[in-house]
Amino acid sequence: MKTDLDRLLVDYFRPEPPAAGLARRVLKEAVAAGGDAEDLMGRLAVAATPRGISLIRPGRQARVETAAGRRLVDRARGELHEYLLGQRAFFSVPVDLSAAPEFQAKVLRAAGAIPFGQARPYAWVAQRIGHPRAVRAVGTALGKNPVPLIVPCHRVLKSDGGVGGYIFGTGVKRRLLGLERVTPVLEGCTSTHIVCRLGCPQLRRAKSSNRVVFASVEDARSVGYRPCRVCRPSQAA
């Protein structure tokens, strides 16, 4: 049975859906094709090694030879679809950057540390990897990101606030940033009093009427919610 506090939380902090059609527009620009989300995802090619996702590019999906590779690709495509529909705030599928040069791998790992819904300048990435003067090289490395979307190079902007370049175009980059601004990061369930990152499989069991958005894990704890042991939102924060 819901407590008065739970009802108050649900009434005032119910998740809001992303702007209508935003995910479809992102996909449409990314692959330069029409159709609904399912059709458009069919035109985004994903490749995998036994270690993880190794490539994401516009194009038709190539055949994946191994069962393990097919599982990884299917998992990535499912998570990408949820992300672009505003139903996921993190990726759990592993990524394989072993083919990237050492410098680029450091840059991509730094970009991956930028929280969902936030952005950092190229100079921040350069500073983080220990090469503060290599801003231009950082931009080049991000421009050749083999796994965009999952490794969020779209969260890196110019120091003057400009969008900067992006493999799918600056329009897509703006839309991705906009999508993340309206997608909640943390949701709790009033029946279990557990807070999860959006996209956690544990959260799928919760009815929409039982979901509530939290700004932080600390806020959730303050009203009696505990972090999920599956998606571990405390570690992500």
Overall pLDDT, averaged? 85
Please trace the helix and strand order, writing H or E for each element: HHHEEHHEHHEHEEEHEH
Helix-strand category:
alpha/beta
- What composes the largest sheet? 4 strands, mixed
Extended strand count: 8
CATH architecture name of the domain at 102-171: Orthogonal Bundle
SS element count, helices: 10
Q: Superfamily at the CATH H level of the domain at 102-171?
A: Winged helix-like DNA-binding domain superfamily/Winged helix DNA-binding domain
Query: What proportion of the residues is helical, as a percent range?
Result: 25-40%
The CATH class of the domain at 102-171, by name, is Mainly Alpha
Low-confidence stretches: 12-16, 31-40
Quaternary organisation: single chain
Q: What share of residues are in beta strands? A: 5-15%
Q: How would the global form be characterised?
A: globular
Strand order of the largest sheet: 7-5-6-8
Overall radius of gyration:
19 Å
C-alpha termini separation:
30 Å
CATH topology of the domain at 102-171: Arc Repressor Mutant, subunit A
Keywords:
39% helix, two-stranded antiparallel sheet, four-stranded mixed sheet, 237 residues, 10 helices, Arc Repressor Mutant, subunit A, DNA Methylphosphotriester Repair Domain, alpha/beta
Written account of the structure:
The chain has helices at 4-13, 22-31, 37-41, 67-84, 102-112, 122-128, 135-143, 170-182, 217-222, 233-236, and strands at residues 44-49, 52-58, 120-121, 156-157, 186-189, 194-197, 211-214, 226-227. With 237 residues, the protein is α/β, with parallel strands linked by helices. Among the domains are: 4-16 and 184-236, DNA Methylphosphotriester Repair Domain; 102-171, Arc Repressor Mutant, subunit A, CATH 1.10.10. The protein has a 4-stranded mixed beta sheet with strand order 7-5-6-8. Strands 1-2 form a two-stranded antiparallel sheet. A hairpin with a 2-residue loop joins strand 1 (44-49) and strand 2 (52-58). Helix 2 (22-31) runs antiparallel to helix 8 and helix 6 packs across helix 7. The longest helix is centred in the N-terminal third of the chain and has 18 residues, at 67-84. It starts with a helix and ends with a helix. The model is unreliable at 12-16 and 31-40 (pLDDT under 50).
